[in-house]
Amino acid sequence: MCMACGACYSSNPTHFEPDPEGKSTVVGGETDNNSSSGSFNDEEIANAREAEDACPASAITVTVAQ
Asked: Partner of 8 for a Cys bridge, out of 15, 44, 51, 64, CB 3.0 to 4.6 A?
């Protein structure tokens, strides 16, 4: 679960942004009380993976759609 450290949206504001409580949400994604998810249609998947690696709570999972 996101601990609102800001590591992901600080390193990758193209894909992640803070909600009013500072917890990460996916830009243009769907967010509920427990999670945020979305799809990225760009060539910057490596940046999303870096944000995933930077998350101290391991709250981010990046997968590639087939």
From this structure: 51
